[in-house]
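Person: At home tonight, work slowly through the protein below, taking as long as you need, and write a paragraph about the fold.
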Amino acid sequence: MAKYSRLMVGYFTFMAIILVSSCQYDDGHATFYGDSAGGGTKEGACGYNDYGLATTALSTALFQNGATCGACYELYCTNSQFCKKGLIQVTATNFCPPSTGSAAWCNSPLKHFDLTQPMFVKIAEYRAGIVPVKFRRINCSKSGGIRFQISNANSNWILVLVHNVGGVGTISGVKIRGTNGNWVQMSRNWGVNYQTFGNWAGQSMSFQVTATDGRFIEADYVVPSTWQIGQSFEGKKNF
């Protein structure tokens, strides 16, 4: 029975990977924000500090209240005189909020990508402003292991940013365990910041990260007992 269960888990994991990487292109639009060097785009609603230039803010329909933070997309410009050849791959790191007027591109149910300027000009001319695109979810390829940053903490609470997640890129759950303690389920505070209560000072910490495709990784004692707020620690594994 145990062997059968492992086989079934492996099968469904494999199928989830295939579905993400082979899904059909959908229709949407893209704009850009920030300056030519990516200024003003390195922080956002997902909590990442700096994910580079290959990032995007998502409209309400795609952002799903932060559930798609860390998701990776492939897109290209289509049906516009301003399109350039080629496609780009970006990671979701921010939210494009709804608005009013003629530029309400991020309102539901529109599927919209607000790219960094350097990424936008890879697929379209700057003067276009907005272009129709074809897009699809893809698996994320990240260098190194999953990272855990101590965003904030006090004697009763801790907040941890979980990032650099490969595979499907999105997280369904995080657990934490202190020195000689039991696993404790964390809750999502905002973006990819996960919280739990208790005094974690002076403890080494391990984490279990479960991706939205059901796979999980355990990072044992990845955070040393000497941790400080703001420090980031890299695990040995990734999806």
